[in-house]
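input
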Amino acid sequence: LPSQTITGNFASVIHGLNANHLTDQVIQRSKRMILDTLGVGLLGTSTEVCHKVTRYSKIYSSDLSSTIWGHLDFRLPPLYAAFVNGVAVHSMDFDDTWHPATHPSGAVLPAVIALSEAFPQKKKISGLDLLLAFNVGIEVQGRLLRFSSEARNIPKRY
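output
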């Protein structure tokens, strides 16, 4: 029997990632993905679906708050800010994709930014920490897709 479960091994790999694993090429590609996702997200703030989730989310408040993209005067708890911004990114359906079909940045970047904004001022994370968190999120998503037999069958179904 293996000494560690698949889940335990997966968690160990992800937990072991650090900024030293970010090559120059990964950093440059990540910056491009982030810039693209922010642009698509800002465009998406003008869609009807984004307006609906923004209106719905106004009922939530918290001491911790994160920015709703395109609204300087409107902040939400990180969970809801990530949701609204994620809807904005994907509402135009121009966000990045890979095979098997998924939209990695639209799911990861809004959460990473919302959480980073919620840190107390004295514990703010660096840009390199944000890039690492973004890449860990992308890595988790990619590995979960590799584990999924359903994801491998998506191209055959469409």
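quick obs: Helices lie at 6-15, 24-44, 48-57, 78-91, 104-118, 127-147, 149-157.
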